[in-house]
Amino acid sequence: MSLNIPAEFWDTLGLYVYRYGEYIGKGVRDRCTHHVNAKGYDLEDCVIVARNLERFEGKEPSLLLESFLIETEQPGDNIVAGHYKECFVMSKLSDLVGGWANDQVDNFDPSIPFSWYTDNYETSFRGKISRRETNTVGMYVVSKNSKTGFWLQLYGDVNNEVLHLELRLGSQKKNYQECVDLVPGIEAAIGCKIVQESQGSSMTRWKIDVEDMDKAIEIWTDFFS
Known about the structure:
- This protein folds into 2 domains: 7-103, no CATH class; 115-222, 2-Layer Sandwich (Phosphorylase Kinase, domain 1), CATH 3.30.200.
- Helices cover 30% and strands 24% of the residues.
- It has 9 helices and 10 strands.
- The protein has helices at residues 7-13, 34-38, 61-73, 93-103, 115-118, 121-125, 176-180, 183-190, 213-222; strands at 16-20, 23-27, 47-50, 91-92, 129-134, 139-143, 151-156, 162-170, 194-199, 203-208.
- It is globular.
- It starts with 6 loop residues before the first helix and ends with a helix.
């Protein structure tokens, strides 16, 4: 398996845990490939145990462990699935890369009931999304990383109301403070107040104070320019 895996794929893993036989590690981006030369491992043997663990940021550690055990052991008396069970993939890296590559074929679904997304797909969202998920409240889309390393998460409902728009940055980024120093300039450029919500070991989040969906989509569209 080639080490030349696109950066866009690594973005989909977020904070993840990986395994090579008797070795287990955690990281972001292409961290798991560093052992190929350093320890003589074969990338074909790399298994992604869990991904997008930043979703547990700010929650009790016991919640993550409980969710992992329910998903991996499937205890018979637990009738409710653990939180974020989709994070625990237990899949070979090569299989995830292959599945991601297949998903790059446009799978736009015009029937989903979020007109803020379907009406602006071609001009604002196509090619800029790393993840899209729906729940009982609405749908959120997560952007790919910008050149500066930031990414956005936009969450809206079926009535075109903005539930939240967040600016995010990996806390382990090498030039983290340089990126943080860009936030006041971003705030001035978009004309909306930006307030830091949290800073964890893996991710820092800022809330963008915007209530109008048209303005939120404008910010999303301009984010990559």
